[in-house]
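Service request form, structural biology core

Requester: graduate student, group of Dr. S.
Request type: structure prediction, single chain
Budget code: on file
Notes: please return the result as structure tokens.

Sequence provided:
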Amino acid sequence: MVKGTSRRVVVVDSPDPHLFEQAIFILRKDVFDREGVSARDVVAEAAELAAHCAKGMTPRRQLRFSALPRWLCTLAGAGGISLVWLAATYL
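Core staff response, request fulfilled:
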């Protein structure tokens, strides 16, 4: 939450637009007070972080239990339960 103060931000376009559109990095107040830190270094680091996050967030493939139709799986399950009930009752 920003409370009416100005913030220094770096906005990086996503390397993979399927996951997210942009990445927004809020910079610390003292980031440019350090020696050897330039605006290009900060932008390059932000772009590298966004690319690294996009690599690690590949969409997972949805698992399917069976290639059989659902109605056939339902009948197979009901039949299996019926066999267990019959075996328990008469054996």
